Amino acid sequence: MSFFHPRQNSVLQQGGIAVIVNTQEDRLIKEAKHLHRFLGEATEKPRHILYFGERGIELKTPEHINHNGQRVDFTTIDIRIGAGNLSKKQPLPKAIGEHTTIVDATAGFGMDAVRLAMMGYQVVAIEQSPIISAMLRDGLWRAVRIPEVKHAIGNRVRFIESNSVEHLQQMKDVEVVYIDPMFPPKRKKGALPPGHIQVLQSIVGYDSPEQTQALFEVALQTATRRVVMKRPTHAPTMSHNSVALHEGKLVRYEVYRPTQNTK
User: Fold this and answer.
1) Whose CA, among 14, 77, 118, 190, lies 20 to 30 Å from 85?
2) pTM (predicted TM-score)
3) Per CATH, the architecture of 74-256 is what?
């Protein structure tokens, strides 16, 4: 059993992550070995277990080690074109517009990236956390084993394990950069975010305003058409010069003109 602390440059949560490998599947063993580069000695009781088993890679708690855990599962997406979250009438695709090449600079559990791919966009999704990146690769591997899901995704999404600020500076011909920072919850008492968001927050922490600003500035220099920033409706806009706002019930998508787009 090994322990891992969340990614650097984020607000770290208390408690380590233990890794348990209970499989002979080569791809999962390879992922476990890849993560081993980031592992340290056990120094505290883990809050989470990263479990490699017959269901793929799951996040569990020590108290529920024998129960199913949280995993990346793209097969839960309704793949009917124009239905539900694949409708281009939703705020996010409306914010992106008719442009086709998207970089999701904050992949998280990858649902936005895969939904966009299912809508027909070409998507590169960047995730810095080695833990979440391994879960993304596992989720995509399992998803494309189902023919109809593989057809819906259509090789239009690629996950990259990297620092977005650094990686964006190496990219060219990116029409849209999409940013969905991990925001702290509202200070006043209210409903908790969905379970998968709570798990993600406990692993990667929250993005500081300085980190979000740095990513935003690099995105403005990289994108050729627009930068789309997701923000909670209660938060101020990222900048004063947005060219469009697309609001939902809890979040809004702010659209900004990139630095190199003078039209």
Assistant:
1) 190
2) 0.86
3) 3-Layer(aba) Sandwich (3.40)
